[in-house]
Amino acid sequence: MTLDAGSNPHPSPNPALQGSQPRYVQLAQTLLNEIESGHYPVGSQLPTEFELCEQFGVRRSTAREAVKRLVQLGLVVRQPRVGTTVRARTATSGYRQSMADVSDLYQYATETTLVIESRATVQIDAEQAQSLEATAGETWLNLHGRRHARTPSGEPAAPICVTELWLHPAFRSIQGIQGALQGAVHAAIEQQFGELITEVEQEIRAVALNKADAEVLGAPAGSPGLWVRRRYRNRMGQLVELATSIHPADRFSYTTVLRREWGVGGKGDAA
Question: Cα separation of 130 and 127, whole Å?
């Protein structure tokens, strides 16, 4: 419900937002429940961020993150000058990734869970060396795992991809990369070794899921998938991490925001 003009502009925090979960997660769960109950039917508008702040006594950043979680669950869509519109009554089991810059990769990593299933140092052969822009015989750290989306309550959902990571020999002693991770591996490299990721190259292909990957993902073998490879580079352009993920096509969508620069004398300037 949207507050009217006579409502208190500084309400006390909603008691439902006083638990151990982050406030944006609790707010997202509340809105999800109201969408599923029909309080906000498909095609209707959610309250604005300002209205959510008033209703729930939260900061604008909290309201923004809560709505972003609903976008990732496929429940709502945000449009400039239109607002946030309910597009589905139930959440999807996949993940919707929106990318504008490198920092969005950190958010993707923190909003999903990477389960590491194997870790080994590997002396790379000539074929691997070509992919890793390295020399055959070098020893890289190789990780295999699967990544899960998380529900608004923070629990892991169905796997959204299988993932293979290669880390440069300089970082093969990295600590804490085991079990279930809720953070970016490249962020751990930055924190532990003082390295700085300044560029990420991304390649996406359409593929058919092979039998092994399909079994892990709980999807039919041969069904459509997305192959995503990211190369994380430092300021010298050197490869720090190579990550390859394979997603079932129905559990992952990807949006890139492209902005045009309007400079003096540029083509975009008015005559």
Answer: 5
Residue 221 forms beta bridges with which residues? none
Distance CA(144)–CA(146), nearest Å, equals 7
**The residue type at 70:** L
φ, ψ of residue 96 to 5 degrees: the values are -110, 120
Per-residue b/e over 4-26, b at no fewer than 16 CB within 10 Å? eeeeeeeeeeeeebeeeeebbbb
- Using only C-alpha atoms, what is the Rg of the chain? 21
Taking the C-alpha atoms of residue 161 and residue 250, their distance in angstroms, rounded to an integer, is 11
Nearest-angstrom CA–CA distance, 237 and 196: 11
Residue listed under structure tokens 């620069």? 261
Domains and CATH numbers, the chain: 15-86 (1.10.10.10), 95-256 (3.40.1410.10)
pLDDT digits (tens, 9 = 90+) for 172-194: 999 999 999 888 899 899 999 99
In this prediction the pTM is: 0.61
